[in-house]
Amino acid sequence: IPAIHQKLEADGTEKVEGSMTQKLENVLNRASNTADTLFQEVLGRKDKADSTRNALNVLQRFKFLFNLPLNIERNIQKGDYDVVINDYEKAKSLFGKTEVQVFKKYYAEVETRIEALRELLLNKLLETPSTLHDQKRYIRYLSDLHAPGDPAWQCIGAQHQWILHLMHNCKESYVKEQKGNSLLHSPMLDLESDVRPSPIGHLGQTASLKRGSSFQSGRDDAWRYKAPQQVTFVEKLTKLVVSQLPNFWKLWISYVNGSLFSETAEKSGQMERSKKNARQRQNDFKKMIQEVMHSLVKLIRGALLPFSLREGELRQYGGWEMKSELSGQWLTHVIQTVRLSSESLTALEIPNDMLQIIQDLILDLRVRCIIVTLQHTAEDIKRLAEKEDWVVDNEGLTSLPSQFEQCIIHSLQSLKTVLDCKPGEASVFQQQKTQEDVCQLSIGIMQVFIDCLEQLSTKPDGDIDTSHLSVDVSSPDLFGSIHEDSSLSSEQRLLIALSNCRYLERHTFLNIAEHFEKHGFQGVDKITQVSMESLKELDQRLFEMYIEFKADPIVGSLEPGIYAGYFDWKDCLVPTGVRNYLKEALVNIIAVHAEVFTISKDLVPRVMSRVVEAVSEELSRLMQCVSSFSKNGALQAKLEICALRDTVAIYLTPESKSSFKQALEALPQLSSGTDRKLLEELLNKFKSSMHLQLTCFQASSSAMMKT
Question: Has keyword Isomerase (predicted)?
Fold first, then answer.
């Protein structure tokens, strides 16, 4: 029993102990669970806090990348492209090769916006108009953004097309204006008056049309009138090209030398690539410049020299209504404009071979200007006949020769700047055709004036207004015939024309030849020779007409006068003096002398000599026609022949001397001294009785003129 009791006690103790242990474990488990539950929340919050802290650290550390897409957009809107490029370069170096997905995602957003920026910058680069500064800036931005292709070359191409577009638009706007369509307001056309330049008669004013030496200089007041459309067009066109081409050329130079990119070590590769591209595209750029130059030249030719373009070119570059060709004055102004443009382009150091086409244009314009000026000069000279006032000075001249000379001098002076060669220009007379054309036009001008003289001198009396006629007060006027009569006779006009011809031959034509030579004209000897020959032919025709007017009546009166009253050489009385017919003839000759002397004393010897020739020739003929003379008849004939011969002795020529000699040889010789003495007495009586009338034949002999 004790043993059993002991065993039972032991078993009970174990059971109690086991139960307590179980309870303790349960308690402990519950406590542990409760603790786990309690601290799990704390630990969870701690982990969440750590995670949040770590996330914030990452965001803080990489906020540059995460904020970059938005910052790029903002900076693009503000135009801070340098900031965008710097941020992009930084992001590319940090995250360009990342494998972290979130970084890759945000970096992709950055690249998307950068690509949009490249497109934006390229569009801005190709926009026109644009400044060279902006173009260089956009090219550098695109280069820094590693834009594909060659933006610089694209810009050059766009600028080239823009210049061509502006040039053709300029032409179209002016052509439309000329045809009546409205032209947008342009400062070039803002002119205050519509006064056109005066013709060559006022060529002294042409200097006021010249502009300043600088292409950008202000206008002279004389320019403030409405210029022809073609002139303002050339001004606008050349100004456009001169303003656009320098930046275009400088852009190319920057492209060639690589200065479009910063000269730093990291950009040296870009510079080398740019230089390499430029070398490959030199010919392409040369073609661009040539196209601009060709367009400039052909547009100007279309406006001013349409005949120098082919039919196809006229459709593209012409279209102007050529109602009348520009005057020499306006062409001179255009030449000055084109020359200034050429100087401006040469200053850019554009190779001369690219600008040669402009020099060719200038040469053609200069030639055309000379041709047109000479043509207009001929027209002006043709109108000089209307200005003849028939006022004779003390040398027997009207103002016509002086007006003619001044007209040509003014014309040549207006061409001085055209004839002078600027640096790089060829002589306007280098082409044989130009020399020939100018020579013919010059001869034509001289001939026009000669025709003008002939027209004036041979017009019917009623066709000439001489109500304003007067003679210089210092001019000798023995008979006052011109003062007393308000109209000129045909003979007087012939005399005045002859006097003008004489002066033209001895002075005016020689002076004009000197002016032609001074201005570099070719073939001056030919011009002078042909003109002189034509002038001499006119002079001779007019002279013959005057002699016919004056000598024929005198000559015609001799035969009736000789045989008046049934006079017979074979049956006549002893001479008592010179008969009336000869005295009348002498009075008529004196009247001719007076008329000529009143107009021009220099013409007297020439006219009188020829009248004496005609009279002596007729007298000789009449004497040779007589079958026989009686003694008294021979003495009478010799008296009258000698009286006439001695009276006009100072105007005798070899021809008239020969006629008098033949007349005397037709007479029987006087054998007796009585007859010779009688002849001498009668001659002296004649000279004494007509002393007053014969005074004009006693003046000192002046130099004879050729007939």
Answer: no
Q: Is-contact 533 501, C-beta < 8 A?
A: no
Q: Find the mean pLDDT for residues 421-446.
A: 92
pLDDT in tens, 77-128: 888 888 888 888 877 777 767 777 777 777 788 888 888 888 888 888 888 7
Tell me: do 386 and 513 sit in the same domain. Answer: yes
Domain identity same for 589 and 688: yes
Backbone angles phi, psi at 477, to 5 degrees: -145, 85
Residue-level pLDDT at 262: 57
What is the C-alpha to C-alpha distance for residues 665 and 440, in angstroms, rounded to an integer?
54
**Shared domain check, 542 and 403:** yes
Whether residues 538 and 582 fall in one domain: no
Same domain, 670 and 606: yes
In tens, the pLDDT along 457-514 reads 887 544 544 443 444 433 434 333 333 334 788 899 999 999 999 999 999 999 999 9
CA 340 → CA 187, 241, 337, 369, 395, distances in Å?
20, 12, 5, 17, 49
Share in percent of the chain as helix, strand, coil (round to 5) = 75, 0, 25
SS3 376: helix
Contact partners, residue 567, CB within 8 Å, separation at least 6: none
Neighbour-count burial of 613, counting CB atoms closer than 10 A to its CB (0-12 exposed, 13-18 middle, 19+ buried) = buried
Residue 666 belongs to what domain range?
564-697
Which residues does 694 contact at the CB level (< 8 Å), separation at least 6?
586, 590, 647, 687
Out of 12-26, 152-166, 639-653, least confident range: 12-26
pLDDT interval class at 198 (50, 70, 90):
very low
Regarding whether 495 and 602 lie in a shared domain, the answer is no
- Whether residue 685 contacts residue 577, with contact meaning beta carbons closer than 8 Å, is answered with yes
For the chain, what is the domain count? 2
Residue 428, domain member (yes or no)? yes
> Could you tell me the two tokens for 582?
């000869």
- Tell me phi and psi for residue 563, to 5 degrees: -100, 15
Nearest-10 crossing angle of helices 400-414, 328-346:
20
What are φ and ψ of residue 131, in 5° steps? -85, 155
- 194, 226 Cβ separation under 8 angstroms: yes
* Cα distance between residue 443 and residue 430, in whole Å: 20
Query: Which of these three, 478, 512, 547, is where a domain ends?
Result: 547
Identify whether 151 is part of a domain.
no
644 and 689 in a single domain? The answer is yes
Task: Residue 143: name the closest of 65, 64, 67, 254 by CA.
Answer: 254
Going from the C-alpha of 443 to that of each of 70, 200, 357, 538, 605, the distances in angstroms are 84, 18, 32, 15, 31
Is residue 203, in this structure, part of any structural domain at all?
no
Residue 107 inside a domain? The answer is no
Q: What is the pLDDT of residues 343-354, one digit of tens each?
A: 998 888 888 888
Q: How far apart are CA 114 and CA 525, in angstroms?
A: 79
Reference 335, options 196, 164, 434, 206; nearest CA is 206
Say what the alpha-carbon torsion angle 65, 71, 75, 81 is, to the nearest 10 degrees.
10
Question: Does 634 share its domain with 538?
Answer: no
